[in-house]
Structure formats: C-alpha cells, structure tokens
Amino acid sequence: MGEEAAQPRRPGVGVGVVVTSAAHPNCVLLGKRKGAVGAGTYQLPGGHLEFGESLAECAARETLEEAALRLRHVRFASAVNAVCASARYHYVTVLMKGEAEPGAEPRNREPHKNEGER
Fold first, then answer.
1. Within 13 Å and on the Cβ side, how many CA atoms surround 21?
2. pLDDT of residue 8
3. What is the phi/psi pair of residue 92, to 5°?
4. 3 pLDDT more than 70
5. What's the pLDDT at 117?
6. Which of 32, 56, 62, 100 could be joined to 47 by an S-S link, Cβ 3.0–4.6 Å?
7. Per-residue b/e over 61-92, b at no fewer than 16 CB within 10 Å?
8. CA dist., res. 20 & res. 98, Å (int)
C-alpha cells in the first residue's frame, strides 16, 4: 500500500474523433454538451482510452456508443498535451480521424450528455 502512495500522478488519456462523411462534405460531427462541465459548448465524439485498447479501437468504440456510427479508415490526426499544474490537471488527448460508413447518419445515443440529435 505504501508503494502505491509514493507513485507519481499520471496524466489521463482521452481520444477525440474527427468524423467525416461523404454525404456531408466539409463538415465534422459535433455534439452540444449538457451538464455541469462545458454545458452549451461543442465537442467531438470521444472518451477515455481503455486499458489494452488501441487508439483506433477507442475511436471506433466511442463513435459507435455516442453517435451510432461505424467508422472506416480510422487514423491518427493530432495530439494535445494539456497541463495546468495549479489545478493538478494533466490530460493527453489523441485526435483520430475516421469516415462514417456510406449512407449512415448519426443518432444521439447519449441524450443525457448531448443535446438533441447530432
């Protein structure tokens, strides 16, 4: 138990997904947040990377869970390393990019987290 307490804090790791669609050129999928943190602001689909999960698997899982979309051609887009020492906040967000399957339209599967339809 003493060893665990001595371990340094580690940053959180999240994955955001830039979802494109041939049916909606020059557009990306965004959700409008509900809740205490960030209400009224827009966010990409995404969430926490699970232990043992690849970045592409996380992107596909989160997009399916949140927007009912299956992705094709999932690939790395960018990464953000956000640190605020005074708030004891450190998060690494990996941005992935994927294309919605042809003909698929998003559905809001998390209405408790996002307003209306996506």
1. 15
2. 78
3. -110, 120
4. no
5. 58
6. 62
7. bbbeebbebebeebeeeeeeeeeeeeeeeeeb
8. 6
Gap between the Cα atoms of 116 and 88, Å rounded: 33
pLDDT digits (tens, 9 = 90+) for 23-57: 999 999 999 999 878 899 999 999 999 999 999 99
The three-state (H, E, C) secondary structure of the chain, written as one string: CHHHHHCCCCCEEEEEEEEECCCCCCCCCCEEECCCCCCCCEECCEEECCCCCCHHHHHHHHHHHHHCCCEEEEEEEEEEEEEEHHHCEEEEEEEEEEEECCCCCCCCCCCCCECCCC
pTM of the predicted protein model:
0.88
